[in-house]
């Protein structure tokens, strides 16, 4: 039996449990052949199979990012799909890949930015994660991406500020720390309650970045 037969759709299941179980098995066994089979079926003619496959892959990525890094090109192509499920799934996979291969994600920064501009809430969230992790990798990437991330923080919806500032925090360093804090302080008046508390905590953590 091929691993593809274990996805939810081919088991006539409407829940995600089979996909998560398959992802755990693939990651635990470091089953590169099985992962390749799942990746190949991102381009299956059946949209349900496509959706299950991207789910399996980003779940593998949550557990062991380097196992899905070879399929970065596929994930980037999904960002141009007309199927929103594949767009945000591809972006989620790219955010996972960024932990293991920030170079690959940086190389697709333009596609990621373009998808963020028109994407769903999940697409936007995951794009910020992907770009921030790439920006945290080295100074070259940071200088290229951090201004874009700050611009996003300056204009994003109030309900996104706290979460997105937390996602960007890994890319904060002594050089850009003060500018990051200034942007966040300007957003304080837009927030209240737990979101405000989270933002203040992020500001405090950023202020402590000395190396």
What does this molecule look like?
- This protein is an all-alpha fold and 211 residues long.
- The protein has two domains: 1-120, Leucine-rich Repeat Variant, CATH 1.25.10; 138-211, no CATH class.
- The protein has helices at 17-29, 32-40, 47-63, 72-78, 84-100, 102-107, 109-118, 121-135, 139-155, 158-168, 177-187, 193-207.
- Helix 4 (72-78) packs antiparallel against helix 5 (84-100).
- The chain is elongated.
- The relative contact order is 0.08.
- The model has no long low-confidence stretch (mean pLDDT 96).
Produce the secondary structure layout.
Blueprint: H1 17-29, H2 32-40, H3 47-63, H4 72-78, H5 84-100, H6 102-107, H7 109-118, H8 121-135, H9 139-155, H10 158-168, H11 177-187, H12 193-207
Helix pairs in contact: 1-3, 3-5, 4-5, 5-8, 7-8, 8-9, 8-10, 10-12, 11-12
* Strand-residue proportion: under 5%
**Derived structural class:** mainly alpha
- Enumerate how many helices there are, as a single number: 12
Q: Give the low-confidence spans.
A: none
Mean pLDDT: 96
Indicate how many domains the architecture comprises: 2
CATH class of the largest domain: Mainly Alpha
Q: What's the architecture of the largest domain, going by CATH? A: Alpha Horseshoe
Rough outline: elongated
């Amino acid at each position: 039996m091929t691993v593809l037969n274990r996805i939810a759709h081919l088991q006539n299941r409407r829940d995600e449990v089979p996909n998560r179980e398959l992802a755990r098995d693939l990651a635990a066994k470091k089953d590169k052949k099985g992962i390749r089979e799942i990746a190949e079926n991102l381009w299956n003619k059946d949209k349900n199979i496509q959706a299950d496959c991207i789910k399996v892959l980003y779940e593998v990525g949550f557990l062991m990012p380097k196992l899905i890094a070879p399929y970065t090109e596929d994930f980037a192509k999904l960002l141009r799909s007309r199927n929103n499920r594949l767009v945000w799934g591809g972006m989620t996979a790219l955010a996972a890949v960024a932990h293991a291969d920030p170079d690959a994600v940086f190389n697709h920064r333009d596609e990621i930015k373009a998808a963020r501009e028109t994407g769903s809430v999940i697409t936007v969230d995951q794009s910020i994660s992907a770009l921030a992790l790439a920006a945290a990798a080295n100074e070259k990437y940071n200088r290229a991406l951090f201004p874009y991330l700050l611009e996003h923080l300056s204009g994003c919806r109030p309900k996104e500020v706290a979460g997105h500032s937390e996602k960007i925090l890994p890319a904060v360093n002594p050089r850009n720390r003060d500018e990051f804090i200034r942007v966040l302080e300007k957003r304080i008046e837009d927030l209240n309650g737990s979101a405000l508390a989270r933002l203040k905590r992020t500001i405090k953590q950023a202020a402590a970045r000395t190396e």
